[in-house]
Amino acid sequence: MSREIRWGVVGPGRIAQNVMGDFAHVEGAKPVAVASRSADRAEAFAERHGLERAYGSYAEILADPDVDVLYVATPHPQHHAVALAAIDAGKALLVEKAFTATTAGAAEVVDRARERGVFVMEAMWTRFQPAVVALREMVADGAIGEVRSVQADLGVDRAYDPADRLFALELGGGALLDLGVYVVSFAQMLLGAPDTVTTAGSAYPTGVDAEAALLLGWDDGRTATLTTSLRYPTPGQARVFGTGGWIDVLPRFHHPETIVLHRTGAEPETITRRPDGVGYSHELAEVTACLQAGRTESAVMPLADTLAVQDVLGRAAEQLGVAHREDPDALAV
Questions:
Q1: Which of 14, 126, 180, 284 could form a disulfide with 176, with the two C-beta atoms 3.0–4.6 Å apart?
Q2: Count of domains for the chain
Q3: Considering the domain boundaries, does residue 277 fall inside one?
Q4: Residues of the domain holding 174
Q5: Which intervals hold domain Gfo/Idh/MocA-like oxidoreductase N-terminal (predicted)?
Q6: Cβ atoms < 10 Å from Cβ of 202
Q7: Are 113 and 143 part of one and the same domain?
Q8: 72-83 pLDDT tens trace
Q9: Among 197, 256, 255, CA closest to 224
Q10: Checking phi first, is residue 124 left (phi over 0); if not, alpha (psi -120 to 50) or beta?
Q11: What's the predicted TM-score (pTM) here?
Q12: Catalytic-role residue among 76, 97, 282, 324
C-alpha cells in the first residue's frame, strides 16, 4: 500500500516544467524518467530536474520496466496514440487536459483502459484544489440548496501567431481545448452532463476557435453560461447559484485559493484554502494514492466525467466549424 510510485514524463514542455516542482510535496511519488521526440530536449529536462533516464522517443519510455505511471503533457492530438500505446504496455496514465483532441479519441482511450484494467485519469488539477474541495463539500452539505446554474469565464489576450501551437489546428490549438476545458469541466462537476449545448464564437484563419460562449442546458431547467477566449482577457471567475444562495470562486477559478459563501439572509463567509506547492501536487497525490491502493479510476476525476466534458467540447467545436483530429503518428521518432 505504501510502495513508491515511479513516474515518467512524456513531453517536456512548459506545463511539465511547472509540474515537476510539486513532486516534492507528494509522499510516495518519485519522477525517474522523461521522453521527448528530441533527445536533446529530454536530456536537458532530465538534467534540470534530476531524473535518472532520458529518452529520445516515446516508445522507449513505454518499454521502461521501472516506470509505473506516465504523465502525458504532449500537444492534445498526441494524447490519443500515446495513451493507447501506454495502456497496452501496462502503464498507468495521468493525461493533461484536454484529454484528447476529439470525443471519439477519448472514448477509445477510456474503453481500452477499462478493458485492460489500467489506471487512467485526466489531469484536471482544478478538482483537487483545496478551495474547490471545500466548495464541493459545501454544495454536498446543502449550503446553498439545490444548484441550478453555473457561470464561469476563462480568457486571455494572445496575439495571433499562425506559427504558435495555440493557433495551429494540427497541434490542437484554439480556446476550447486549452481554456474552455476548464469552464466546461467546472460546470460538469456541479451539474453533470448537459442535455443541450449551444455555442457562438469565432475562428482564426488557421481553423482553430478564437473565442466561444457556451450555453449548456438541462431538461429540468438548470443551465451553465460559459465563456472562453484567446482574443480577449476575462477575470477568470466562477459563480455557483443555488436555491438558497451562491458561492463565488475568486480568480483564477481554475486554481483558486478563496471562495465566498453567500447564504440567503446571512453575511458572506470567506473561506481560504491554499494549495501545497503550485497546486499540481494534489492531482499527483491522487494518482499516487490510487495506484498504491490498486484502483483503476479516480473517484474525484472519473473517466465518465472526462467523457462528458470531451463530448461538450466536441459539440461546441463542431458548431464553430472547428475540426480537430488526433495525430496517428504521435509515436514516430
A1: 180
A2: 2
A3: no
A4: 130-272
A5: 5-122
A6: 13
A7: no
A8: 999 999 999 999
A9: 197
A10: beta
A11: 0.97
A12: 97
